[in-house]
């Protein structure tokens, strides 16, 4: 099929590239000309494992191209995807200005029947709004279909090529069938719904996952007070198939471009119909507090942070991405500086993006993990990059001024810590050090 994708960000680029890899002809369009120029030079504007290779392969085979012009690609396409951003407005609602603009541009370019697929995450009723905007500007026939996207950054290609399910929200049976045919090579689990339900499935899914994270983080906070270990608790809970083991990793809370904005948007969607989504408001509040547990633990171990040097491992909101949108590091690093600390930071990929969002004279930008730990009074792990997880902690403690480690993602085991002199704080697990003999863990018996 001939496809055009409007918006060449994490979702549009990955979807376009994967559809081309399945044999479709795809044009990825973006109004950001430096981004398109990079792609035309064979460079990739975002970091996503495997993406560069897949772009090179499909451009070389002539199925994938890039453009800043929307007209010709829309005219040549049977299906036009909208994958533009829907960022958060100050009041929490989704900003639909990019959606509206894309809809107007598609309408003006139309030259005959097309299916317009919304992949962006949009509030309930937005696809009807897109239909109205386009309908007012064209006499050509078209259908609007909602196909919300569920990919995760860092595993976006795998998620796109092997989705758990594909949701198709449509008014037209024929349009739904065409979109189902396009997705059938990816999965047999295709669920067709009305458009409003499809829009709601996306927000409800993200809100539920965010709820799981805030739930386990609160359990972790209680575990710390009662002397239980949240990793064992999560393991025990997760074996119950009704609960499931995923998204029960306690830590410093969720970040990223989706959960924070989509939970706020759903609270607003509910509020607009006079429903107070109390549970979700608490999920957001718990998440906001959780990241500052790192600061409390540093204060517990160092007392006054003024004049201390703290190493930070990880700036991206999760591993395997360069995305720092709503990353916990963007609040933790400034908070440390406000308390008077010097901060040495290192991330394998996200340093440049972080620096664009936040820079300060109290930050030392380190070139590797060991350098970020060197001469520090304490070290905090904020993102569980493999590089940190596989580090030799004995080497790290040697380069530090004081062996204090705050692990915001629970990546190190009791056995690893016992081989060191670290005073080790994690989330929902007991503090460990040489003088604090731990009860054995029974996890592997
Ligand atoms: N990032 C994710 O992991 C993810 C996953 C699922 C769903 N989503 C949703 O998908 C949507 C896109 O997210 P993203 O992270 O890919 O955004 P992004 O900010 O990375 O990319 C959006 C792109 O759209 C372009 N754009 C905006 N208006 C345009 C127009 N009129 N014409 C052409 N290009 C235009 C921008 O220049 C930008 O490059 C959002 O609604 C988001 O909530 C994101
Ligand atoms: O047990 C867990 C799982 C995740 N996280 C955190 O939650 C955030 C989000 O992680 P993840 O969901 O893996 O990444 P995203 O790329 O933000 O993907 C989410 O948001 C996307 C955008 O809507 C959806 O498409 C995906 O299905 C949804 O998982 C990150 O900060 C993680 O560190 C935890 O703290 N504990």
Can you describe this structure?
By secondary structure, this protein is of the alpha/beta class. Helix content is 44%, strand content 14%. The protein has an 8-stranded mixed sheet with strand order 3-2-1-4-5-6-7-8, sandwiched between helices. Helix 5 runs parallel beside helix 6 and helix 9 crosses helix 12. The longest helix is centred in the middle third of the chain and has 32 residues. 45% of the residues are buried. The structure holds nicotinamide-adenine-dinucleotide and uridine-5'-diphosphate-glucose (UPG). Nicotinamide-adenine-dinucleotide binds next to helix 1 and helix 5. It catalyses: UDP-alpha-D-glucose + 2 NAD(+) + H2O = UDP-alpha-D-glucuronate + 2 NADH + 3 H(+).
Layout of SSEs?
Layout: E1 2-6, H1 10-21, E2 25-29, H2 33-40, H3 51-60, E3 64-67, H4 71-76, E4 79-82, H5 97-109, E5 114-118, H6 126-137, E6 142-146, H7 156-161, E7 166-170, H8 173-183, E8 190-193, H9 195-226, H10 230-238, H11 259-272, H12 278-290, H13 293-302, E9 309-313, H14 329-338, E10 342-346, H15 351-357, E11 363-365, H16 369-373, E12 378-381, H17 386-389, H18 393-399, E13 404-407, H19 414-418, E14 423-425
Parallel strand pairs: 1-2, 1-4, 2-3, 4-5, 5-6, 7-8, 9-10, 9-12, 10-11, 12-13, 13-14
Antiparallel strand pairs: 6-7
The structure holds nicotinamide-adenine-dinucleotide and uridine-5'-diphosphate-glucose (UPG).
Uridine-5'-diphosphate-glucose (UPG) binds next to helix 9 and helix 11.
